Predict the structure.
Amino acid sequence: MRAGHASSGSVRAERPPDASGSIRVRVRYVECDPMGVAHHASYLPWLEMGRTELLRTSGVTYGAMESAGFFLVITRCEVRYRRPIRYDDLIEVRTRVESGSRVKIRHTYELALVERHGAAPDPADPSVPADGVCAVATTELACVDPNGRPRELPAWLVTR
């Protein structure tokens, strides 16, 4: 079986996933309200993008896990909005595996402003946080089978 491909309820990783990582996202118009501020619901897909890319560092995709019968569902999500993120901002989604168990994984996130109006953020702008972090978040995911029943995560994904 090739790494990252599923067969009969198992999925193998090429290597353990990284404990942390980051991706950059340009805020699209569709993600904003009429004032050009990113809508609060837009943050959840950005968090998912961070988790997905972190998993990908193992050589496994969510699709391969689902094909093997491992589904990761959000059981808890908390976002603290510190400063507005706006249309066309470039943000960095920093994702970190915080903890886990045999069936759950907890991630923490920082959404940092990298670019606004085509340049580095202006520290004199009161809408720009001093540390650059516009929002912080946590999620907890549980592993379930195709019927929605709890199941153990693949061993290589369990946080030690």
Summary: The helical segments are 43-56, 62-67. Strands lie at 6-7, 10-11, 20-26, 71-81, 90-100, 104-115, 133-144.
